[in-house]
Specification:
Two copies of one chain form a homodimer.
Chain A lengths: L1 H4 L1 H4 L13 H4 L5 H13 L1 E6 L5 H9 L4 E8 L3 E7 L2 H10 L17 E6 L2 H4 L16 H9 L4 H12 L3 H21 L4 E5 L13 E6 L1 H8 L6 E5 L7 H19 L3 E7 L6 E6 L4 E7 L2 H16 L1 H16 L13 H13 L9 H6 L8 E2 L2 E2 L18 H13 L6 E4 L4 E4 L24 H20 L2 H6 L6 H4 L19 H22 L3
Parallel strand pairs in A: 1-4, 6-10
Antiparallel strand pairs in A: 1-3, 2-3, 5-6, 8-9, 9-10, 11-12, 13-14
Protein name (chains A, B): Mitochondrial poly(A) polymerase
InterPro entries (chains A, B): MTPAP-like_central, NT_sf, PAP_assoc, RL
GO cellular component, one term (chains A, B): mitochondrion
């Protein structure tokens, strides 16, 4: 039922990942996280990226490329010029194309002759051909600005509708997801040059169904397969081993490998810019801008728990359409009000905020999503994963999880989220998603959210008292707005209403865009809010543990 | 005729490279430099290096390896333990072997899992099996020390014989040559990871027939094939080019590529130690010690003129057996007397000294080797090479060059070499190997030897006046020793004679090894030499240009 509420929006949402129909056999059920990852990685290996002239004859380009094999899909996008992503049906087509692609002639001796899957397509005779060329359809690779979004939200018929509009505008598109996997696959080409069994996989927001257009691509280098090879075979009286560089610690090996791959990207990788090696971090990584795809990338080495977190969110995001709509709305809300930030600090992270929403959804009655312990009970033998002594097992098959009986609207859920955390006893309690329960805080961090897989760790350890207080205050203010607002009056006043009101910085409504009228104007609201804050001040301080 | 003089020594000399019989078709003529290079490089790609226990059952190892394919050749050598170089008949055998070789188990997570062609072979049950294991025959990879050589020379029957003994002890063996090409091939694996069309080839002493056991391996990275690809194809109205890192100069591209490959060797290459990047040199290079093969290596980027110099020497070295015997003897002589040095400086280089010998041999009557202009006249269309505006064409087919009519013995040639350069007018004249003539010096460098391919350059520009004077003085002293010495008397006195006398530091005969007797002892010789030097002092100063 809950799914039906979102149904009319679902039809216009390009669902990334799980809803795509690829073959009829698995069409009856949603794919597992691993199936989606494997399929997308394999697709990306058959994909090339071509820089095109601003006007071109799409048909002729495709005709030309088709001479190297069947094309499965393609799209165009703008990123310092027009680019085409082209997915062939067979990997061999890429090699066939590469065989006839030339090395830039203009400065033949001044290029690094690394042959990637990034090409430039030009017309030999641009003038005479221009007549046949037409602009191509461009797939957007970034979301609209918040002020434009607010305009769109104005015309919706409910807060639920507004939340689905936001989701639709901000979520990753099918095209953007392909581009992310391609970026990983191109980095994988670098890693496989030396480690043919390695894989570069995206994790986090690119794959957990909660990614926003424009978010960074987190990727990791996986040697898993290599290590499995090591344990195989060895019969007879002999043993033959590779001579290999030995290092005193795995961390040092990771640092050296990342460092060299970083140098390779820097020196050989077309469009790999601003390489930063952050090798002394807890999790060593290489940051770089990948200009051809337009992504900011973070490359680290396989972190099994991070993948499990991605998979867990993938499952929650796929269980019920309200989950993602609520998370996207709340992330946008938190960002507008400065509760989250793109740089690390004492702010609540997007991951922590998402986990707060998950916890809230576990606590509904009836619950909208199951607890992690419940997901673990549904796990079968192949779902068993013990990582570093932690049991990270949970069901991977979505069809084994019963749909929720909960029928609350997103309007209700949004308002209740603010109320729930506006009144949460952060001083005493922590959020435990494994059990779906508030439990006593094991230590004094202002905000304590149990790491679902490493139960001794607090994923929101970075959050300080002032940031938590700000969050609680904003939640209360938002709950108040939603409860008190007169939608009809606001629409008459041409003021933002519902979600749009929450996405406008409080006390900063824009007089140019939204003409003020008499009645319950924003200044009136602000003074009311101020009085609310005053009256609640002692309560708030108690709640956040002062 | 000249060849016949050396014939009895040739039978015991393992001729590297050109004399090997590989197939009957080309057996009738000596192979060209390029044919030899191509064949050896291809062999090296089918070759693996295996670290073995100190005692092993050779038969069982070969039996085990044969399960992956036919073995063409193998040998064992000592280098921090026993190693086996094994050349398979097919390249696919290497891949087949690699598939079953394990990653070191002991510290599984602390290795860099780069899979090379370097393996370690161990017995699972070393104690029980030990009975079956026997020591294997080891091929020497270094030459005997000079004092041991001098003992061997004592028993020879002529100076010619002594010179062939020296050649036989010092020249590269078939096995050592294979090991050198393997070292290049292993570095090539690193380069091909990113540049699949590239080749790493040895040049200089490893391939010019004048290399001494233990000399460094000079290798270069060749992108030649890559660039040829670039010019191919391109039809239809479109053009497709690779996106590639562009750099303002070829030099910068070279530096970046060498730098990254240096890092890869350093961090991933088993046994690649002491990597030094010398990127700001005129010819940027990376130096490293390759422990598995035991070589000190210099990796640079393709230098066509250096290859042509190697080929020219290869031709001269193959034309007449006296050429190499004379060069090896004179290099050893120069080294003993401090005229050459392994570190760069104002000393005469081995290359310059070799060119002086070539010039001397061009000047004999009749000449023993042709001039470069004569070799150019014999060149056909495929031998044409213009490099950077310089005509580097010369004949590649050895059979086109007529054998010399000169029948002088090496005894005569050695003595005449000292006399010729002892009296050469270095003040006025330079050595021009292209024309085989002394010509007026174009500038005032103490020693001027025309670069055979870049005629404006002096290959011995580094040599200063004192070093040249020392060379001339030593040449005169050596001529005097050879002319004056009484071999029978010296043999009775158990003193070094002939070449051995020349290889004993003058005035430093060793009383422990060579007991002094009355008669023309070393001290008498020294005083005679001193008087000679005095009487010749003004003449010497005039000759060297003071």
């Amino acid at each position: 039922e809950a799914n039906q509420r979102g149904a009319k929006f679902l039809c216009i949402i390009k669902l990334p990942v799980a809803s795509r129909k690829v073959n009829t056999e698995v069409n009856t059920r949603k794919k597992t996280f691993t199936e989606v990852q494997t399929e997308r990685l394999e697709q990306a290996e058959r994909t090339v990226l071509i820089k095109c002239p601003s006007r071109l004859n799409e048909k002729k380009l495709l005709q030309y490329l088709s001479s190297h094999g069947k094309i499965n899909s393609h799209f165009f996008f703008e990123n310092r010029g027009i680019h085409a992503l082209v997915e062939f049906s067979e990997k061999s087509s890429v090699a066939s194309l590469q065989d006839v692609v030339g090395i830039p002639k203009a400065a033949e001796h001044h290029v690094v002759p690394f042959k990637s899957r990034l090409f430039t397509f030009t017309l030999k005779n641009p003038v005479t051909k221009a007549a046949q060329e037409t602009p191509v359809h461009l797939s957007p690779q970034s979301h609209i600005p918040v002020n434009e979004l607010i305009q769109k939200l104005y015309r919706a018929d409910s807060i639920s509708s507004q939340m689905y509009i936001l989701l639709n505008e901000y979520q990753l598109t099918e095209e953007n997801t392909k581009l992310r996997f391609l970026a990983c696959s191109l980095v994988q080409d670098f890693a496989r040059a030396y480690f043919p069994d390695s894989t570069v996989k995206p994790f986090g927001s690119s794959v957990n169904t909660f990614g926003k257009l424009g978010c960074d691509v987190d990727m990791f280098l996986d040697f898993h397969d290599t290590q499995e090879h090591a344990t195989q075979m060895k019969k007879g009286p002999f043993e033959m081993e590779y001579q290999m560089k030995r290092l005193p610690s795995e961390r040092l090996a990771t640092q050296k490998i990342l460092s060299v791959i970083g140098d390779c990207l820097d020196n050989f990788g077309p469009g790999c810019m601003s390489i930063q090696k952050i090798l002394n971090a807890r999790c060593p990584l290489v940051k770089f801008a990948h200009q051809p795809t337009g992504f900011q990338c973070d490359l680290s080495v396989s972190n099994s728990i991070a993948i499990k977190s991605s998979e867990l969110l993938y499952i929650y995001g796929n269980l019920d359409s309200r989950v993602r709509a609520l998370v996207f709305s709340l992330r946008c809300w938190a960002r507008v009000h400065g509760l989250t930030n793109s740089v690390p600090g004492t702010w609540i992270t997007n991951f922590s905020l998402t986990m707060m929403v998950m916890f809230f959804l576990q606590k509904r009655s009836p619950p909208i999503i199951p607890t992690l312990d419940q997901l673990k009970e549904l796990a079968d033998e192949k779902d068993k994963h013990i990582i570093g002594g932690n049991d990270c097992s949970f069901v991977s098959d979505l069809s084994k999880i019963n749909p929720t009986k909960n029928t609350e609207t997103l309007d209700e859920l949004l308002c209740d989220f603010f109320e729930y955390f506006g009144n949460f006893d952060f001083r005493k309690n922590s959020l435990n998603l494994r059990r779906g329960k508030e439990v006593n805080k094991p230590e004094s961090s202002p905000l304590y959210i149990w790491n679902p897989f490493e139960q001794d760790l607090n994923i929101s350890k970075n959050v300080n008292q002032p940031q938590l207080e700000k969050f609680v205050a904003m939640a209360r203010e938002s709950a108040w707005i939603l409860q008190k607002e007169d939608r009809t009056q606001r629409m008459i006043n041409k003021e933002p209403w519902g979600l749009a009101a929450l996405l406008t910085p409080f006390g900063k409504s824009n007089p140019n865009k939204m003409r003020r009228t008499k009645g319950l104007g924003s200044e009136t609201i602000r003074s009311l809010l101020d009085s609310l804050k005053l009256s609640n001040a002692s309560n708030l301080q108690k709640a956040v543990g002062k």
